[in-house]
């Protein structure tokens, strides 16, 4: 049996332990409440915590750059999307300078890069996506396919263990233009091999558009092996609710790709206010309109924290935290079935468990201070974000769940799911 003392020992040896203090806790004044009744937030993969440095960084942009600098601050703001993109590229994504842009939402960036990819593969009439991918990805693929009279081929992944290379090989042929895939699956956390899948697709002449939403800031990503990618900054990157997303386009492809929204921020010599759209060079051609300057300031703070901690250390801790969770579920909660890959190198920094009353259990947990996610149809998803979750937090969360199950405390809760889960 793994004891609470064992978990404490893991915390004592944790090289990232100090990063917790970079984030706002739940106690008075944002201090960390380490008491037995404290909240245990295991949903950093849905909305990351607030970095302590963010309010001041945003306030500085508001008060100095906007308040005093006014329109003159645009000289500085026009470079922000690529400046923060470069922080992500170097520190988090394994990309080169000038390959990452912070802009728009993940859904919009998916649309832009998918359209660009389709345009770069004329004559091909099939798009591939995963039947179990996050809804927005499937909806965007379906919409683009409809617009072009293309067919969608859905790969049927194992919901718990994810896609295999054979699954992908089976749907590739010379009709496929673009494959849209999540590197880390949103429900199970299952991870695929980015380089191997990209190579398979390239060999058949297709592009892969990676969605890194659950991967960025939780696992090591090497985009030097990829062509196109998008992802969120409000999950493991702690950029805040509604923070702009990022997009990545391999340098060698940028000049040959056209995005569908011809906005003035993607225009060559933007302030010439010329008569016709002519996309600028570089990754900025995938920009559209005036960027969210305030929100991007918050993204920069979060991105710099992950870059400073280093993705190898963050990913290693993510594997160790989820390994502990899997071990404790095995030891103490036989009523639950693991709904994620067992091998830690095959998953991101979250795991799911299955139980017929998962929604009721989720509500009972939230009332006992443990915040996971419920995911359809019957999964509880735990995302112990490596930068601020301790091993003892995972231990206590499982302990509270064991109490709920032992006392049937979840049974009085409604079995009907609420609108936001
Ligand atoms: C969270 C998530 C999104 C969110 O897209 P938004 O446009 O930010 O709402 C998209 N795709 C995946 C795989 C996600 O996990």
From TrEMBL:
<comment type="similarity">
    <text>Belongs to the kynureninase family.</text>
</comment>
<dbReference type="InterPro" id="IPR015422">
    <property type="entry name" value="PyrdxlP-dep_Trfase_small"/>
</dbReference>
<dbReference type="GO" id="GO:0005737">
    <property type="term" value="C:cytoplasm"/>
</dbReference>
<dbReference type="GO" id="GO:0009435">
    <property type="term" value="P:NAD+ biosynthetic process"/>
</dbReference>
<dbReference type="GO" id="GO:0097053">
    <property type="term" value="P:L-kynurenine catabolic process"/>
</dbReference>
<dbReference type="GO" id="GO:0030170">
    <property type="term" value="F:pyridoxal phosphate binding"/>
</dbReference>
<comment type="pathway">
    <text>Cofactor biosynthesis; NAD(+) biosynthesis; quinolinate from L-kynurenine: step 2/3.</text>
</comment>
<dbReference type="GO" id="GO:0030429">
    <property type="term" value="F:kynureninase activity"/>
</dbReference>
<feature type="binding site">
    <location>
        <position position="214"/>
    </location>
    <ligand>
        <name>pyridoxal 5'-phosphate</name>
    </ligand>
</feature>
<dbReference type="GO" id="GO:0019441">
    <property type="term" value="P:L-tryptophan catabolic process to kynurenine"/>
</dbReference>
<protein>
    <recommendedName>
        <fullName>Kynureninase</fullName>
        <ecNumber>3.7.1.3</ecNumber>
    </recommendedName>
</protein>
<feature type="modified residue" description="N6-(pyridoxal phosphate)lysine">
    <location>
        <position position="235"/>
    </location>
</feature>
<dbReference type="InterPro" id="IPR015421">
    <property type="entry name" value="PyrdxlP-dep_Trfase_major"/>
</dbReference>
<dbReference type="InterPro" id="IPR010111">
    <property type="entry name" value="Kynureninase"/>
</dbReference>
<dbReference type="Pfam" id="PF22580">
    <property type="entry name" value="KYNU_C"/>
</dbReference>
<feature type="binding site">
    <location>
        <position position="106"/>
    </location>
    <ligand>
        <name>pyridoxal 5'-phosphate</name>
    </ligand>
</feature>
<keyword id="KW-0662">Pyridine nucleotide biosynthesis</keyword>
<feature type="binding site">
    <location>
        <position position="107"/>
    </location>
    <ligand>
        <name>pyridoxal 5'-phosphate</name>
    </ligand>
</feature>
<feature type="compositionally biased region" description="Basic and acidic residues">
    <location>
        <begin position="1"/>
        <end position="11"/>
    </location>
</feature>
<feature type="binding site">
    <location>
        <position position="211"/>
    </location>
    <ligand>
        <name>pyridoxal 5'-phosphate</name>
    </ligand>
</feature>
<dbReference type="GO" id="GO:0043420">
    <property type="term" value="P:anthranilate metabolic process"/>
</dbReference>
<keyword id="KW-0663">Pyridoxal phosphate</keyword>
<feature type="binding site">
    <location>
        <begin position="134"/>
        <end position="137"/>
    </location>
    <ligand>
        <name>pyridoxal 5'-phosphate</name>
    </ligand>
</feature>
<dbReference type="InterPro" id="IPR015424">
    <property type="entry name" value="PyrdxlP-dep_Trfase"/>
</dbReference>
<comment type="subunit">
    <text>Homodimer.</text>
</comment>
<comment type="function">
    <text>Catalyzes the cleavage of L-kynurenine (L-Kyn) and L-3-hydroxykynurenine (L-3OHKyn) into anthranilic acid (AA) and 3-hydroxyanthranilic acid (3-OHAA), respectively.</text>
</comment>
<feature type="binding site">
    <location>
        <position position="234"/>
    </location>
    <ligand>
        <name>pyridoxal 5'-phosphate</name>
    </ligand>
</feature>
<feature type="region of interest" description="Disordered">
    <location>
        <begin position="1"/>
        <end position="35"/>
    </location>
</feature>
<dbReference type="GO" id="GO:0019805">
    <property type="term" value="P:quinolinate biosynthetic process"/>
</dbReference>
<feature type="binding site">
    <location>
        <position position="264"/>
    </location>
    <ligand>
        <name>pyridoxal 5'-phosphate</name>
    </ligand>
</feature>
<keyword id="KW-0378">Hydrolase</keyword>
<comment type="pathway">
    <text>Amino-acid degradation; L-kynurenine degradation; L-alanine and anthranilate from L-kynurenine: step 1/1.</text>
</comment>
<feature type="binding site">
    <location>
        <position position="290"/>
    </location>
    <ligand>
        <name>pyridoxal 5'-phosphate</name>
    </ligand>
</feature>
